[in-house]
UniProtKB/TrEMBL annotation:
InterPro entries to which the protein is assigned, alphabetical: Class_I_gatase-like, DJ-1/PfpI, Homeodomain-like_sf, HTH_AraC, INH-QAR
Protein known as: GlxA family transcriptional regulator
SUPFAM superfamilies: Class I glutamine amidotransferase-like, Homeodomain-like
Protein source organism: Roseicyclus persicicus
Record flagged with keyword Amino-acid biosynthesis: no
Alphabetical UniProt keywords: Transcription, Transcription regulation
Amino acid sequence: MVTYPEAHILDVVGPLEVLTGAKFFLPEGPEPYAVTLVAPHEGPVSTTSGLSLMAHRSFAAAMADADPIDTLIVSGGHGTTAALEDAELLAFVRQAAGRARRIVSICTGAMILAELGLLDGRRASTHWWWCPILERRYPKVLVDRDAIFVRDGDIWTSAGVTSGMDLALALVEMDFGHAIALQVARYNVMYMMRPGGQSQFSAHLVAQRAEDPAINATLDFILGNPGDPLTVTALAARAGLSERTFARRFKDETEMTPAAYVETARVQAARVALETTTTGVEQIALQTGFQNAERMRRAFQRHLGVSATDYRARFRGSEAAALIRDGPD
């Protein structure tokens, strides 16, 4: 595991907890994964949480080792920008990649792999915020903006933070089989396969990055009033713009059409209602602007890969979902 100052601590410990947790479900014997944490210097390495991790080896010391590596993992986090300027880090990752059976990045660790050309011509994922940056800076990389994680040959990349645990679980399944991976998932209170992609998390976050005051105000209004008739005509009038100008500026600011954002915001509002209330599915569909449960079902399938009722069952338990269901959705 490669780390560096101001990496995200979960990018490091999340995947490692999943991988090393396999030992609890395997027959007695050697550890399933022997972990070495490598950083600029041996010893404490700061993370964005304020906690420090203890690196086993420095990049310089690890460079002297010619032994094969089973899995090379590169963590991500706020320190990635500085890490991209660290010649010693880049040299180690380049050398280690040449002796690794497979190469993995967590979150913005994909930027480091891309900087070294390891992702050229390959599909890859990273944190949704960094996807457009990865596309612009490394045009040879085929960025999958919605994937939780991507495998392209012997290189695996994950989206943000906790998705590194999803990727690690897939590695456990590859190495030890589905039954062991399922037990590890249950132990860590994880889905064996998480529903949906990165888009399910993005409505409020997209709103935070808009700089145009008119568009920013519109985004806030959509999030606060998902049940309103949010047509382009109505939204453009509220923003004081022509429909054509509004649609263009909205797309420039959010990289989404108004209709796509409205649906994302409505799915998000419906998710919260399904998770936190016992209101029936049909009523939630009306409250969040879908007009009926069938339209909401189709939107949930597009965004999350499950129906609204199935989503509620996953987050509230099947017994509770059965009690509050008011008909098929």
